What does this fold into?
Amino acid sequence: MRSGNLIAIAMLCLSIGAQAAIVITNDDGHGRTQQYFEKGAFVLVEAGRPAFGIDAEGNCWFVSEGQRVFGQCDSMFASMDKMRQDAMAGMSERDRTLMEQMLQSQMPQQAPDVASSGTKQIAGYANECYKIGASHEICVSSKLLEEIEREMGKSYFMELQTKFGASDGPMGMRNSTQEAILALSKKGFPMEDRQRVSAIPGMNAAMLQQLPKAQRDQIMQQMGAAGAGQMQGSQVIKVDKNGAMPELDFSRYPTVSFEDFMQQMMGAMGGSRPMR
It folds into this structure.
């Protein structure tokens, strides 16, 4: 084979390698999702349909109410913060107090214990696993996180992960379990996330975390094995490091700005005050 042909093949391989995306497939027992990472861009696909994405320039989009909502990520977060502030400011003193009491009641009274529960191989990656309190377990892979960080570089996506990492609760609050998950997600990419579901109808084992440990242990002892329930959640089932970004077809979705989308949502809730 001539050297020119070898060079052409090498260039083709380099080109293909440079365009490869990391594709992570997750299964929660009800359906599968794919997360795509490539050169600072991120796409989430749920049940075969595009759900959320961030491009390398810091623009965010998501699909909701049959529309593709598009805007600059920072502007979206600023608008959501203002909406929360306006919602609280528009409440009477009594309603604000009731809201704060309700939110506080949903927060565990004490931080859950976090303890190592060993190691596990998941989708070809070694994972460190941890128990969070009595009802949560998460396994994270430092190697997969390193690969994603190399692929994404100093992108807006990585900046966003550093800022948030885990979902906020109502009105932007984050409980201590979410804080523990956020801390662990900085150690490695979450490849398994399971929560205990009570076998007793009407009893949510996760709610036991809100009680003092002595009272919680007493209730669990009284419930016995029946109250232990089962662990349910999601797990990564495949990691493809030579994947490709999906061909997204938004032709069926009209594109609207985030501000227009929020106006629609406020209108649907009966609020007509314009956002500024």
Summary: The first helix runs from residue 3 to 18. Residues 3-268 form one domain. Residues 6-18, 166-172, 272-276 have pLDDT under 50 and may be disordered.
